[in-house]
Design goal:
Fumarylacetoacetate hydrolase, domain 2, 2 domains, globular
Length: 286
């Protein structure tokens, strides 16, 4: 199943170039009160929501997907964890380009570990990217985003895929400079998820997915997830050796070579096999 959030927090099921409005299925979610849970309620209760979707979908109204405003498919991730330099060619690229490394040491992911992005940086494809610090280089990084489905700590590699709820396309935007990664990558609108959330049962083999990104029609990035240095199970095991992952947490798996700058007025097109494609406009921040 492919789920999306659109317009004013509507819930949709994507069917080709159409979306069915199944927002009434959200009534299956339990009511919460303060303090709010540190997870995404939809992902935590995905099975209940899918049951309700099955009951309402035949009568759900349909709209052209191109006419809706796509939000991030995951509304409330407790955290966004990201893998730096997790493709070998991008590691070489980052080490060889001073405009990328800014005299920072670029180490292997096994040594430098993961980093966290602020959840306030999260937007959907229709919201677009607002460039901050236009005097610096602002780069695109397309990635496979893994959405965690249940809580886990010290998860073994062998069982890690049991904790995956599904997948999205992710854009890990970054301001180049000497500061720590988490600061430069946590700018408002610098984490884009979309166009939909594909449940794990629909995307059965995420280890061999073609992914690409173009800017204004110019190809920039193209790779396959089989080229990841640390695969999804290894990343989950690595992350949970330090902290608990909760339902709705997002794991950005790393970007391939070909990262490059964007500026206001550009349009990015990101695609991942089995998930879809999302077009994201770049604008100047107010």
């Amino acid at each position: 199943m492919k789920l999306c959030r659109f317009d004013e927090d509507r819930l949709g099921v994507v069917e080709g170039d159409r979306v069915r409005d199944v927002t009434p299925a959200l009534e299956a979610l339990p009511r919460v009160s303060y303090p709010l849970p540190r997870l995404d309620p939809l992902i935590a209760n995905l099975a209940l929501v899918r049951e309700r979707i099955a009951a309402v979908i035949t009568s759900a109204p349909r709209r052209p997907l191109a006419e809706v405003r796509l939000l991030s498919p995951v509304a409330n991730p407790g955290k966004i964890a990201a893998a730096p330099v997790n493709y070998r060619k991008h590691l070489d690229e980052a080490r060889g380009d001073p405009a990328i490394h800014h005299q920072n040491q670029v180490g292997e992911i096994q040594r430098v570990g993961l980093f966290l992005k602020a959840t306030s940086s999260l937007v959907g494809p229709s919201e677009g990217v607002a460039v901050q610090h236009p005097d610096r280089r602002n780069d695109h990084e397309v990635e496979l985003a893994v959405v965690i489905g249940k809580a886990g700590r010290n998860i073994a590699r062998a069982s890690a895929m049991e904790y995956v709820a599904g997948y999205c396309i992710g854009l890990d935007m970054t301001v180049r400079g000497p500061e720590e990664r988490s600061l430069r990558k946590s700018v408002d609108s610098y984490t884009v998820l979309g166009p939909c959330f594909v449940t794990a049962d629909e995307l059965r083999d995420p280890t061999r997915l073609e992914l690409s990104l173009s800017v204004n029609g110019e190809p920039r990035q193209k790779a396959n997830t089989r080229d990841l240095i640390l695969g999804i199970p290894e990343l989950i095991a690595f992350a949970t050796s330090f902290y608990t992952l909760h339902p709705g947490d997002v794991l950005l798996t790393g970007t391939p070579e070909g990262v490059g700058p964007v500026q206001a007025g550009d349009r990015m097109l990101a695609e991942i096999e089995g998930i879809g494609r999302m077009e994201v406009a770049v604008r100047a921040a107010r």
